[in-house]
Amino acid sequence: MSLFERYLTVWVGLCIVAGIALGRFAPGIAESLDAMAITVDGAPVVSIPIALCLFFMMYPIMVKIDFHEVVRAGKAIRPVGLTLFVNWAVKPFTMYAIASFFLGSLFLGLIGPDAVDLVKMPLGKDLAVGDTYGSGTVVLVDGVRMLEVPLWRSYLAGCILLGIAPCTAMVLVWGYLSKGNDGHTLVMVAINSLTMLLLFGFLGGFLLGVGRLPVPWQALLLSIGVYVALPLAAGYASRKWIIAHKGEAWFREKFLHFLTPVTVTALLVTLVILFSLKGDTIVQNPLTILWIAVPLFVQTVTVFALGYALAKVLRLSYENAAPTAMIGASNHFEVAIATAAMLYGLSSGAALATVVGVLIEVPLMLMLVRFCLATQGWFGRSR
């Protein structure tokens, strides 16, 4: 784990401070960045700065995927099956339930039952001022139609997007530190990236609709195409070309080493942009971060505990059990951040919630790594 990655929480904190300062002292810069977008029917759909940042976040992850290993991983039925079950049949729904309880009930009085958030108009919807859509009402803000929704539901939407985007490539670091099976971890990162192409839009459309923040299906599918499929295709094509012309040794020892800091750097730039637009909200109510962080913490620990316990029941070796639980606990925050920005806007509560996911990810996952190392004796070893 490089110095850069080891102190990711520190860099995240510094970028939050830098973003807040930028928003307060140079608001025109942040607003100009937010205005750079690809529009459909006059509605901003894809933020160009976020799309560029996310491409450079995702490409180093995708280029590592060996599709031959993905195929061979199908032979390991129990660890692969358990990982997919926890990630896609359990995690999205526990996230919805836990976040709804904390944000919509327990913390509602603290967030403000009457507090509202302004989010982008839904893609493809031609709604008039005063129309309702889900739990929101169309209002006119500086000549632009926006959807006014309860603030807690906007935070809930961001949590949902984290819940349906499992397993970032940082899991490779957590698996390594916990002395897990690196091969299994890499393969499951690849399989989850591919599974996300199929299920992210479906589950997102369903759960956001249940949360009364419905999003047109085409918007989620577009986000997957721009933020997952494009870097996946670029990673596959460039990996194949580089190995054919330079050899696999050069690819692993030189090219991947060069890419190591790219993902985190792009993520940090994204955070500066996001917090430049949320600075006033945080300064006025810094406890907002805490209200969002608590359900995310509970969700992460719950999913990890379930995965770890089921791995014990299925008699997996420790080397497979540790990364299996880690994969379920982690969030693909790069995709969640970009999708929230595209669907609801950079300045939305949903985007802020996904950023809080980044803020707590590193220290929380390091805590779980230590727990795994302390409980190795609960499992057998690989033969």
Plain-language structure description:
This protein has helices at residues 3-6, 8-25, 27-35, 48-62, 67-73, 77-106, 108-111, 151-163, 171-177, 182-210, 217-246, 248-259, 262-284, 288-313, 318-329, 333-344, 349-374, and strands at 37-40, 43-47, 116-119, 132-133, 136-141, 144-150. The protein is of the alpha+beta class and 383 residues long. The chain has one domain (3-378): Na+/H+ antiporter like fold. The chain has a 4-stranded antiparallel beta sheet with strand order 3-6-5-4. Strand 5 and strand 6 form a beta hairpin. The longest helix has 30 residues, at 77-106. The protein is globular and about 60 Å long. The model has no long low-confidence stretch (mean pLDDT 83).
Mean pLDDT: 83
Give the radius of gyration: 20 Å
User: What is the count of helical runs?
Assistant: 17
Number of domains: 1
CATH topology category name = Na+/H+ antiporter like fold
How widely separated are the two ends? Answer: 27 Å
Beta-strand residue fraction: 5-15%
The CATH architecture can be named as: Up-down Bundle
Unreliable stretches, pLDDT < 50, 5 or more residues? Answer: none
Approximate helicity band: over 70%
Secondary structure: number of strands? 6
Strand order of the largest sheet: 3-6-5-4
Structural class label: alpha+beta
SSE topology string: HHHEEHHHHEEEEHHHHHHHHHH
Gross geometry: globular
Summarize the biggest pleated sheet: 4 strands, antiparallel
**CATH top level class name:** Mainly Alpha
